[in-house]
Amino acid sequence: MTRLVRVQSVKPLETFMVDVRFTDGSQREINLEPYLHGPVFEMIRIDASLFRSMRVERGAITWPNGADIDPDVLYLGIKPAWAIAAEASNFESQSS
């Protein structure tokens, strides 16, 4: 059975950069800015102390306001859903 890779620990660095260690032992510096999109992330983007209050719960990076980031997105380097939707919208408008 394949085990899912999850976030084991996270440490905020400068601006929106974080040091993430995954459960498979890999470690990466990741810019979270592209993932902090939408109303639930608004205060996290504005307030550096709130951004830095992140923690790991059930293998995901979470914040006290209930926001979280899917660990698969970070581990696999997948574009955030909002970015994919925006690209699709741009493509549709260019095709018209």
Shape, principal axes of CA atoms? globular
Low-confidence stretches: none
Radius of gyration: 15 Å
Going across the biggest sheet, name each strand in turn: 1-2-3
* Strand percentage: 25-35%
CATH topology term = NE0471 N-terminal domain-like
- CATH class identity: Alpha Beta
Derived structural class:
alpha+beta
Overall strand count: 6
Q: Number of DSSP helices?
A: 4
Mean pLDDT: 89
- How many domain units? 1
Instruction: Give the termini distance in whole angstroms.
Output: 46 Å
Tell me what the CATH architecture is: 2-Layer Sandwich
Largest sheet: 3 strands, antiparallel
The percent of residues in helical segments reads 25-40%
The ordered H/E elements are EEEHHEEEHH
Brief characterization of the structure:
This protein has 96 residues and is α+β, with helices and mostly antiparallel strands.
Keywords:
96 residues; alpha+beta; NE0471 N-terminal domain-like; 3-stranded antiparallel sheet; 31% helix; globular
Describe the structure.
- The protein is an alpha+beta fold and 96 residues long.
- The protein has a single domain (7-95), classed as NE0471 N-terminal domain-like.
- It has helices at 42-46, 48-51, 71-76, 81-95; strands spanning 7-12, 17-22, 27-31, 55-57, 60-62, 68-69.
- A three-stranded antiparallel sheet has the order 1-2-3. Strands 4-5-6 form a three-stranded antiparallel sheet.
